[in-house]
């Protein structure tokens, strides 16, 4: 069976690097914003510090990295080129400008008037992303399991950002008379559960077997996860907005948790089949991320059963820092060296000595960073559970320290290239 | 001078997968080498379908083969059947990867 080379249609990796580098900068800034969050651990309140941090972290870091990963993986996975690379660049710059305005408004009270303008620009940039993805899918002849995840995730993004804009306009201009709390929850659920989780699940099915050299495993668990999770998220969002009886919301939550459990079982099976047995910082991060995802799911279930806001926040901490941060940083250590290597070293293969990808990462710093991150998640979670603000603050400092080491390694990857070129 | 299969394999074994750190012959990615006069046909696979190095590894392989004395042309065919697995790798690779 002869197969065409999908990477002939891949976008320039420099575009992907744009998203990764800026994402890491915003991650560092979100770590600083977290230091001011200790007062918010006593309950779920929509404060400006929470808004600043959550948007910096989720929109600035998580979404930015996911956009970059999507632009890199879509052509490879779908075997069709991105509909428009120019749209991707326009989206990047609009996103950075709009998002910066919005976060400035959240962070500095006197700049709050910038929020709606920033939100509209960010919204438009996300629309560009969504339509770029939809139009790319329009070229597709055969839809695979991974592409289903990417497509459904993008549909959730489209719905969620539209909800976000309607919430903003209703708050600012009284556009709609809505239950803001329920709509915000639907917006968060659609973005985190619908877009972020669906993309993470789909991308995992490419990256984890690739980096662990796993083969010959069944995909029935991830297949089940696709339907359980997407249906659960959609049902839960509808329940929140239309105000259906609580038991329907409970059913939706069960579907979501079952979907996440199926995903975890699938990844465990892939890991069991891996040919590459070394437990490096990538493996540690992925395993820790899965443990935290499980703990976050359990905590979320108890939050719904007992309506205990502490458990809700604990679930958020475990999901944000334990799962998402570990998972993404683990993969940044794999992908970032590749992006730099591809631009700077690939042309010299066969002509001069070029580094291996793992050599471009400072291993000791990455290992140290990984352990500090794990400890910080434990300390942050303990701070929330014990309602102990100082402990939460210590956890935030540890997390920031861990992020400084991520920034160090990012700079190290670039410097590695420069030192080699000087030789 | 007529090149041998061994010459071709030796040339291809200079191509290293920068992610895994082993050459593609030791990894077992080369399924076949066919020499027809000055033309060489390589049948190979990759360890994963979603590999972003897909195109580059093919190019490096071709460049390596074309360096062999007597080779004037080289065709690379990427196949996915049979799918690669670790049993196809050399004992050294298996030992180092699997511990």
TrEMBL record, chain A:
UniProt protein name: Uncharacterized protein
InterPro entries in UniProt: Cyt_c_oxase-like_su1_sf
SUPFAM superfamilies in the cross-refs: Cytochrome c oxidase subunit I-like
The organism's place on the tree of life at top rank: Bacteria
UniProtKB/TrEMBL annotation, chain B:
Superkingdom field: Bacteria
Protein name per UniProt: Metal-sulfur cluster assembly factor
